[in-house]
Write a structure and sequence with these properties.
Blueprint: H1 28-40, H2 44-61, E1 69-72, H3 77-88, E2 93-99, H4 105-118, E3 122-126, H5 129-142, H6 149-166, E4 170-173, H7 177-180, H8 185-188, H9 194-204, H10 217-225, E5 230-233, H11 242-253, H12 266-280, H13 284-294, H14 300-308, H15 317-328, H16 332-340, H17 353-357, H18 360-371
Parallel strand pairs: 1-2, 1-4, 2-3, 4-5
Helix pairs in contact: 3-4, 3-11, 5-9, 12-15, 13-14
Length: about 375
């Protein structure tokens, strides 16, 4: 184990066990961030032209259909700003929401307010709670870092199915390089590894997954390669500034802040603000803020000051913990056992990581293929 060290440029440190530094003291994460920005983000003029071409193609292929694209919505900053921009661009999206049973009341209100004001229809897939609870508990019992894989995987599968239902190949999302371009794989693993998800559930679960939305990596890849799925990372086409986006949504959509990134979900708020920190020492704010710092939307000193704040400063940890244990059907004592259990990595369980990591060229091709219009 290497001694504690922090990047000279961003906020990442040796809480990521796989981090490494160059001769200038800059870490691999921010070096990779700037490489991606330089190679994947075009100039403002080029982005404007490319966006116009994307919008025209979506509009053309959507003629005669009720919707010309779909867009995932969670109530968070990025996805809400995406639907705001889609409406501004004159497109006709169907908003798609995966309801895993953990929405906060504020998230429900933010989604409703935004869609009502924008006059956008909503399609919601409500997962079977007993199945999903059993799957979430499987990841907690496995003692692995990324307990959000069940949700992240199901969102992708739900979007694919919704696109087929609507008859569009265009799936618009809020993922972006500028404000989300840093996140250690050791903290998250790959949510599209369905083999891994099923392996953990077989080991620790008890309820068959009959209705849980899923899609294999091979099936997802084939949809992209065949041209039946086009992922559009809309925010990569814009000069996206998160603070400006938030102010716009507050003014135009009545949107309210949750107190943290992805805190629209009670489970995610608890998982990021307490569980991940308490069990693994991983503070996802460190990665999120590092991207903002690298984007020049926050100074490094401001980011460091933010990290000193309690991640639950604007929310109620005790209340959330009580809600989580009650909803999961466990006791506080059982939760304490889960938190104190020996930590494991995702690679300790069956997975296709070797295939994924060995397919760098294919992944780059798929990423570029998904963006083509």
């Amino acid at each position: 184990m290497q001694s504690y060290r922090q990047c000279n440029r961003c906020l990442m440190d040796t809480s990521d066990p796989e981090i490494f530094f160059d001769d200038c003291g800059n870490c691999n994460h921010c070096n990779h961030y700037f490489h991606r920005v330089s190679t994947e983000i075009s100039s403002s003029a080029e982005r404007e032209s490319n966006l116009a071409a994307v919008v025209e193609r979506i509009r053309k292929e959507g003629r005669g259909k009720e919707y010309d694209c779909i867009a995932g919505v969670s109530g968070g900053v990025d996805s809400t700003f995406v639907i705001y921009k889609l409406k501004e661009l004159g497109l006709r999206p169907l908003a798609v929401h995966f309801d895993n049973g953990w929405n906060s009341e504020l998230a429900v209100a933010n989604i409703k307010n935004a869609l009502d004001r924008l006059k956008i229809d909503l399609h919601t897939y409500v997962v079977d709670w007993e199945e999903f609870r059993d799957l979430q508990m499987s990841f907690l019992k496995a003692s692995v870092p990324n307990c959000e894989i069940p949700t992240d995987h199901a969102i992708t599968a739900t979007l694919v199915k919704a696109a087929k239902m609507v008859g569009t190949r265009y799936v618009i999302n809020g993922s972006n390089i500028v404000t989300e371009g840093i996140l250690p794989i050791s903290w998250v693993y790959y949510s599209h590894d369905l083999y891994h998800l099923k392996a953990l559930h077989r080991r620790f679960g008890t309820i068959p997954l009959k209705t849980f939305p899923s899609i294999s990596l091979s099936c997802f890849t084939l949809r992209i390669l065949s041209g039946r799925y086009r992922m559009v990372n809309l925010l990569n086409y814009l000069d996206y500034d998160k603070v400006t986006a938030v102010e716009t949504m507050k003014r135009e959509l009545g949107w309210q802040y949750y107190g943290g990134k992805h805190y629209e979900s009670i489970y995610t708020r608890w998982y990021q603000g307490y569980y991940l920190l308490a069990k693994f020492g991983f503070d996802k704010r460190r990665a999120h803020l590092s991207a903002i710092v690298c984007a020049g939307q926050m100074t490094r000193d401001q980011g460091l000051a933010e990290l000193q704040r309690d991640p639950y400063a604007e929310n109620d940890l005790e209340g959330d913990t009580e809600f989580v244990v009650k909803k999961l059907g466990i006791t506080r004592e059982q939760l304490d056992v889960l938190v104190s259990a020996p930590n494991r990595t995702h690679l300790d369980y069956p997975n296709i990581n070797r295939f994924i990591e060995g397919s760098v060229a294919l992944r780059h091709f798929i990423r570029n293929r998904a963006k083509q219009v």
